[in-house]
Amino acid sequence: MAWINFPLYAIVSGILWILGATVSWTRLKRSNILAIILSTIGTIVFGVFITKLWLVLERPPMRTLGETRLWYSMFLAAIGVVTFIRWQYKWFLTYSLLMAILFIVINILNPETYNKTLMPALQSVWFVPHVIVYIFSYALLAASSLVAVFGLYNIYIKKKNDVTGLKDLADNIVYIGFAFLTFGLLFGALWAKEAWGHYWTWDPKETWAFITWMGYLVYIHLSYKHTKSYKTAFWVLSLAFVFLLICWFGINYMPSAANSVHTYSS
Amino acid sequence: MKNNKRKIWESPWSYKEGWIISASLLIIGFFLEYVTKNSFRTNISWPTNFYILLAIVAITVSAYIFGKHSKFIKWACSIPAAITAVTVFTVLTLAMGFTIQDSSANSEIVNALGLSDITHSWPFILSQIYLLTTLGMVILKRIIPINIKNIGFTLNHLGLWIAVSAGVLGSGDLIRLTMDLHENDTNWIAKDESGNSIELPIAFELKDFSLEEYNPKMGLVDNISGELIHKDGKNLYLVDNKITCNIDNYKITVDTFYNESGFVFGRYVPVNDIGAAPAALVHITNTVTGDTISDWISCGSFRMPYKSVKLDSVKSLLMIPPEPKKFTSDVKIFTQEGNSFAASIEVNKPVKVQDWEVYQLSYNDEMGKWSSLSVIELVKDPWLNVVYTGIYMMIIGGLFLFWKGKKNSKTE
């Protein structure tokens, strides 16, 4: 049960995404529509792969880091397309598609031997909603941190002081992303009660999930009150994403997290 | 944020005061921790925790009503107070994220400051009080007078307040016990975390413990270190009849696979005994040299030795004991009132008996599917429904957040 046809799907999606992003920058007639169509087809192709994988494995492909990266790529691409449809930011579409490709490349470089085993603790109705909601929010929040970094670049390098448009975009994405992050956290708590007997045990993964949640909580309050303090807001947003990355896979390398119950890959 | 002309502690308070309060709480907390030498580790339980909760509510409400116009209360309802409170709590949680929460793993100074058991430390308790105070104040500010526009806000903030306060104060009433069940025996004595026996008003008779397994996996093992060369689980393959896989430079085909087998005259044959082990006849081709081997591998069982195949001087092919797919205890439960009923306890499917949630915890690993021992866990958490009320409020509040986004959430 190796990657079977993963590279094939990955390459088709990747090419469609690259074409989509490139077309968006050209002066072709209806370049925007064409970009949307190409990127959407790329995303659908990738979705088909995930669906096939799910069927072949007879379990949701959400157990290992590599499997969650698949969802992440698909969501990131989808978010890029939807945001592009709504706000027409070419750089945003390009960056989200490139990030999606980056994660696919990581998966191609680290081939997994998928197998059907799923430990009893993961066999629950909560498994799919918990993971999907989380990965979707991760993809949104990654997108928001892209906006933040681009905003900081505008402020510091290009010396632009008015980044209201970017700030509004970041806010819009963060609100949705944070709502999903909250769902992920709370679904996790409800599931933990079913599986491990208590809704919150400060397991390292829980601790870092909570830190991440609070990072975005600070951003939301800050940006609610100080609508014009862009620099601080963008810095907080970038830092919150660092917490998110630690929570997602950084803790695999941390001695303080060695005893986490959230270890499913080996 | 830019209010330089205002002197500190002059009205209106803002971030400076917030940071000073946060820093003071941390300093006082660590000082208390150092002085009391972690001796403050008693869990507050019923009814003390309930009185404390009432006191917190009473103090928050009366402080808000009578001191509404004081600079402290005005500030406590403000965003600067919220941000500093969340930040100081985040800092402590970060400390928890970076420190192993076990005193034996840390240096003396880390332990003395309570950093190896942060959730029970003074700084953490003070930080929670700070967070709940500012949260409580801003909730009161928004719900008096009641305005339907504030419903999303109220669900999120009040939900969090309820979940955190009930979760923290209720933790002293949480009871977690384990109980060993042997097939066809009835037991009503459980053990707590310290190993003390506790008699329960309910009893369990284990009728049958059953375990379903996945097929075993196979992989390469280092001949000298004896360690699996698994690359984070990526180089392991499920064994099944007629499958072929490539591991490193070996092409491996499974010719025959038995889930339960015995070793008879140099070969494995299917049997149905206790302790019968999985075994597979594999055909291995070295894709570099073209050499082939045909031999049996087996992971063994508590009654049978394992068998691997040596591929070269460095590596062998090994079968790894199967992973559990599902394990279930079929029990009969008796109550003190004389009632009895049958139930199935499974991972992720706890059974509720009176105030107890009963979980499938473990079994005798060595015996695997022949285990006649099943360990269950019993959990009693009288505050659970209160915490869940808070959690459900936040889930509904999250829908508002998602649906309304930023612009509409600005109701002020």
Your description of this structure?
The complex is a heterodimer of chains A (266) and B (412). Chain A is mostly helical and 266 residues long. Chain A is built from eight helices and no strands. In chain A, helix 1 (6-25) runs antiparallel to helix 4, helix 5 (127-156) runs antiparallel to helix 8 (230-248) and helix 6 (164-196) runs antiparallel to helix 7. The model of chain A has no long low-confidence stretch (mean pLDDT 91). Chain A is globular and about 55 Å long. Chain A folds into two domains: 1-118; 125-266. In chain A, 73% of the residues lie in helices and 0% in strands. Chain B is an alpha+beta fold and 412 residues long. Chain B has three domains: 15-144, no CATH class; 175-212 and 325-380, Tick-borne Encephalitis virus Glycoprotein, domain 1 (Sandwich), CATH 2.60.98; 215-322, no CATH class. Chain B contains eight helices and 17 strands. Chain B has helices at 15-36, 48-66, 71-76, 79-98, 108-112, 122-143, 151-170, 384-409, and strands spanning 175-182, 186-191, 197-213, 217-222, 237-238, 244-247, 250-264, 267-270, 277-286, 292-298, 309-310, 315-320, 324-335, 340-346, 351-353, 356-363, 373-380. In chain B, strands 6, 7, 8, 9 and 10 form a five-stranded antiparallel beta sheet that branches. A four-stranded antiparallel beta sheet of chain B has the order 1-17-16-15, with no helix packed on it. In chain B, helix 2 packs antiparallel against helix 7. In chain B, 32% of the residues are buried. Mean pLDDT of chain B is 91; it is low at 408-412. Classes of the chains: A mainly alpha (266), B alpha+beta (412). Chains A and B meet through helix 6 and helix 7 of A and helix 4, strand 5, strand 13 and helix 8 of B.
